[in-house]
Amino acid sequence: MPSAMTAQYGDEQRVADTGGRVLAGNAVERLPSGGVNGVPAERVSGPARRLRERLAEHRRVFVDAGAVAVAAFDVWFWFAPDAKSYNYALSVVAVLALAFRRRFPFLVVLLTVPGFLAGMAQLAAMIALGTLARQRLLAAQTYVAAALVWFSRFFPWPPGEFFERPWTTHVHDAIYGCIVAGMPVAIGLLAHAREELSARIAELAASRERERLLHAHAVRADERARLAREMHDVVSHQVSLIAMQAGALRVAVADPDAQRVANTIRALSTRTLDELRQLVSVLRTTGGDDSPQPRVEELPQLVAGAGVPASLTVRGPVDDLPAPISGAVYRTVQEALTNVRKHAGGAPTTVHVQVEADELRVEIRNDAPAGPRECSSLPSGGHGLVGLRERAALLNGTFTAGPSEDGGFRVAVVFPLACSLNRSGVAAGPGAAGEAGAAGGARAVREGCER
């Protein structure tokens, strides 16, 4: 199962893909194997997406230009050398009027009818009628426009030819006029129905997405409540017993060394209880980011109470670091010191934190253990270094860890600051609370980098 840190640092970057689900933000998110929040893992590239958006913005302009071009080609195709000048004038007016068919559909039909009746602009009148039917449906204006287009096809120009034609030709012209007037109306109604269907489908998809988010929020709230109960009932109880036993041991023994160890155990237990109480309170809230996040300024207290001989060196300004960066530094040092205490027998350790103009460097190096590992029997999940690597990757940093030349161990992490010093100040809870509740802070850092 992925680390809870993916919830802290947002949803845009993952370093592990297990195909599972992770509770983060206000929804249950799927890892990259299935997309995040229903978005496919294969995304459209930036240039292609921008090109598609630009084409969508100018789609109407392209369609209108194409309609005018088709109507102009129709006039040119039916060019008659013996036509009068007014025939060409009416046809040109009908073609040019199509540029305003979306804004004044009925007026454009009225302007194209003379060009169809006494000119050669049949397609212009049909296109204008289809646009009117698409916008007004079967309104009175649509019926009037359809009748005018039918009459323009049925009645020939000049009028003298009408009386010279046989009745069979009139019947044929009437039927063909119904086709010429009915086809644009049918296409316009079909296009309108398609738009309505697309809008309904989009509305249904949005409604289902809202329902999914509400359901995911409810699942997330139940999971947080369950975790809070478990931590309060089990972990807090055990840590309280440790603190009480340490206090009793401090009073019962007379050895100064034993009293010092008992004081250290009691202090660490009390600090752990405080963090657990804050974590439980955070898990019981909705936002998950109400508690303050440990910062670099608290490293001296952490190093002093680490239980190992350690020295700390901090160079550069650390007061105005972004909360995600500062919290990640604190947790990195905390995890490294814990590993030294568990796996290196409390070997001497040096902690270096250096803030430069464009990056922050952290290095924790311990010497080779001189004696047996006193805490080798302590349980370990084996996820410490993996979690540190995830922290660094989710903040666009780099993480390295491995044995040093002198037989010790070295942990180093570098966080970029050139695009991160936006002083966002978004805080997350301490401990696991910080890992589950500061997604907005790191997301703001990444958005600042992208800008």
TrEMBL record:
Keywords in alphabetical order: ATP-binding, Kinase, Membrane, Nucleotide-binding, Phosphoprotein, Transferase, Transmembrane, Transmembrane helix, Two-component regulatory system
Residue ranges of domain Signal transduction histidine kinase subgroup 3 dimerisation and phosphoacceptor in the record: 223-286
Transmembrane segments: 61-79, 106-130, 137-154, 174-191
Catalytic activity: ATP + protein L-histidine = ADP + protein N-phospho-L-histidine
Enzyme nomenclature, EC number: 2.7.13.3
Keyword Nucleotide-binding: yes
Any one GO cellular component localisation term in the record: membrane
Domain of life (superkingdom): Bacteria
Position of the signal peptide: none
Xref: CDD domains: HATPase_UhpB-NarQ-NarX-like (cd16917)
Record keyword Cell membrane present: no
Residue span, Histidine kinase/HSP90-like ATPase domain: 329-417
Catalytic class of the enzyme: transferase
Annotated GO MF terms: ATP binding; phosphorelay sensor kinase activity; protein dimerization activity
Biased amino acid composition, Gly residues: 431-440
Region of interest (Disordered), ranges: 429-451
Entries under PANTHER family matching the protein: NITRATE/NITRITE SENSOR PROTEIN NARX-RELATED, NITRATE_NITRITE SENSOR PROTEIN NARQ
Identification of the protein by name: histidine kinase
Species: Saccharothrix australiensis
